[in-house]
């Protein structure tokens, strides 16, 4: 059951990151951007929670996924409040920290696919870029901030897709070489 839950969580998170990344595209109107970002973060938080629940207790992977879920919830709170930019920045930093913790967990796991640590590292980098972009926007550098946010969203999405592919790879029967 936990393998299925991990796969579902990883899939849900990947759909959420792609949804949020699509919401970062500037040619969409503000209402569409908001809706895509909000629902993308809801899906990400749900996916991270499912993944945390599927992990072995007291592992870095559990804590990394929980911290990422807290980060998504913080971003959601920021999106739903009038002046939520600081909450969104904080939420992105939490997600980045959670991604780094998950990366550390996968890095030491000899059974882990190479896709998982790379995916978690990309997610952490993407979230950090989004947070830095938010700081730029807060300081009046809107164009640079938005550009960093868009790049960060897509880097995070690519990372979450790699983590999902890693979950699929875990379920495939292993073939002996030679």
UniProtKB/TrEMBL annotation:
InterPro entries: DUF6944. It comes from the Bacteria. It holds the Pfam family DUF6944. This is Uncharacterized protein. It comes from Anoxybacillus flavithermus.
């Amino acid at each position: 059951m936990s393998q299925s839950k991990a796969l579902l969580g990883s899939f849900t998170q990947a759909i959420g990151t792609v949804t949020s990344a699509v919401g970062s595209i500037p040619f969409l109107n503000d209402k569409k951007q908001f809706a895509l970002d909000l629902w993308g973060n809801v899906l990400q938080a749900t996916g991270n929670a499912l993944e945390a629940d599927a992990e072995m207790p007291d592992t870095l992977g559990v804590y990394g996924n929980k911290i990422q879920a807290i980060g998504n919830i913080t971003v959601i709170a920021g999106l739903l409040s009038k002046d939520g930019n600081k909450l969104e920045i904080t939420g992105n930093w939490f997600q980045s920290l959670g991604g780094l913790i998950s990366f550390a967990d996968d890095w030491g796991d000899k059974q882990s696919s190479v896709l998982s640590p790379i995916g978690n590292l990309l997610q952490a980098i993407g979230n950090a870029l989004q947070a830095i972009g938010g700081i730029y926007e807060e300081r009046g550098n809107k164009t640079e901030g938005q550009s960093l946010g868009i790049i960060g969203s897509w880097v995070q999405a690519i990372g979450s897709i790699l983590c999902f592919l890693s979950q699929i790879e875990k379920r495939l029967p292993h073939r002996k070489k030679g």
